[in-house]
């Protein structure tokens, strides 16, 4: 990492004329102190007018005697060092403005927050007195020579940038050649710094250097960074006590099994440990939706959380409307019945603006207008086998479909093909896109005989970057999770697993993939490094496609259906099974979906032909006890009217579904 002399000379062949350096306007190395601003907090070396001596602090003729306590901890039953504790209290008092109280505590305890040398060093950095800051740095007990060099470099880098910002190019060149280069800086970094001399305007400099200038917070950030090189016992890190308290609150939040509040909620009290009960957790069925005449296989909420789309074996998809804001839990109604499908409906996906719903039935994709129920377009020529998954892109520019025919197809928003990826090496059973729009995660069954025949002129996708450390099981046969780069279409990672993989969801931070795995386990994988981060057990899954999802505020919970007819809920970080929720009838609970705008509501669907809406018990009052919506008695005056079924008339829909082929309970991989 260090430069040899020849490298430095090649980068800095020109020698600046230091005689042209502008004289310091305020005695601070030629760099203005930004009109007296200190660019952060500072501590006075004095104690707000008070002075200390051997007899304690003297104030208004009164002395404060030093208190001598036995031992070195804050109490007999504690391991917390008293000196460290008191020094942090002194720092906190100063931070909140109680200067006199801090000075009194210093006198009474005999401990000082920091030495005079540290206080001066801190102030030199904040005031931009660079030469004195570098001199003081040598007296702050930095033991490692490398650390001292790194700290000196950071100080001189700030000095160099401030000279450039002030338009003092000659002085900046002098710092670059005579103060930065001798520190054996990484040559690439030194090249980058030298290129900043070409910036014609301060705004351009700040943008290219990713630096907010002398008048911003750069000096305070520099001071915070220097804490990494100076022993913390010598210079206490900024706001250390609040940092420790915040860490304790975070720990309590992570340990609180039923915590379901948004991250920005800050109503934690310091007087007691944080604890949530399950009273605010959605464990009660408040609504049962009963229009489907056969097994319900999939569900998905609209992005605004006001509509729920359901897919059924009865060859229909239904869009349900949640009640108006503030209305009771039972104020649900069927908005549209989309029954123009030849086969059972398997997958659903809402467009970014919720104006279009995609449905899949066998190898056919349909695009529906979610306001009118009109089928905009039918896509049926690209896939040769069942389309198992379809997902809109994060930017709304189009969508991607994947199927058991091993194909991945990228579509434009209007339903035209943008790119056919060709054939993958797995029969894809499910697929998800990372919210950051960079990767595609697919799960499926390995293809027994590799097929290298191009599809419609495109080349087959090859698996690359396989990490043997995270490849599970024997090298032949089985199932895989494959992670693709969405831009290059290349496989970044392939992880082999035993057992069928039926569902995949990606966390909101794009780091984790949740995978339903038969038999009877759900895996949580870190898709950045391919490591197994957790697993959740208790539910039953052996023959059918079962789907799980993240739920709650910040994805705190894992929720899944099960072949035993129950809904299972786990705490994501600890893996603790929190709830087993009964209620559905005979058969599997096939899918679950958490409302994206209401942390206290999720939906589940089942082989019993129903969809259940789950909410917190406190919402299930006598007025909003379980409410059934069955669709009977609904009229269709010209296809219009609040709460009326739109699309195919319901009587016709019943007639068409009576002749539907009966395939037995549950959606299985072979269907």
Automatic annotation (TrEMBL):
Q: Which Gene3D superfamilies match?
A: YVTN repeat-like/Quinoprotein amine dehydrogenase
Q: Where do the segments described as Disordered lie?
A: 1-47
Q: Which GO terms describe its biological process?
A: proteasome-mediated ubiquitin-dependent protein catabolic process
User: Superkingdom of the source?
Assistant: Eukaryota
Basic and acidic residues: compositionally biased ranges: 1-10
Q: SUPFAM superfamilies this protein is in?
A: WD40 repeat-like (SSF50978)
Give the CDD domains listed for this entry. WD40
InterPro entries linked to this entry = CTLH_C, LisH, WD40/YVTN_repeat-like_dom_sf, WD40_repeat_CS, WD40_repeat_dom_sf, WD40_rpt, WD_repeat-ST_regulator
Going by the UniProt record, its keywords in alphabetical order are: Repeat, WD repeat
Q: Does the keyword Ribosomal protein apply?
A: no
- Which PROSITE patterns does the record cross-reference, listed alphabetically? CTLH, LISH, WD_REPEATS_1, WD_REPEATS_2, WD_REPEATS_REGION
**Is Repeat set as a keyword in this record?**
yes
Stated name of the protein: WD40 repeat-like protein
